[in-house]
Design goal:
about 85% helix, single chain, mainly alpha
Amino acid sequence: MDIFLRNIDPVVIKKIDEMAKRKSVSRQVFLKSIVEKVAYEKEQNEKEMRMEMIISKNILVMVKMSEAVERLENLMYELMEE
């Protein structure tokens, strides 16, 4: 599918061309990547937030497991001393 834009400021076009050149791609490829990024940005942010929440929950579980293991170790040492 095609998108056509009209009445773009020539200064803006020049800047876009410079950015595309720095990335060694055409204006078409550069603008296509930006449009696609904008289209998926919300979903990507939501995925990142879900991933951060999962990581935080995993860290909490790991801390609790570590504390439980430490309590078990202490109990074992106490039982072995008796």
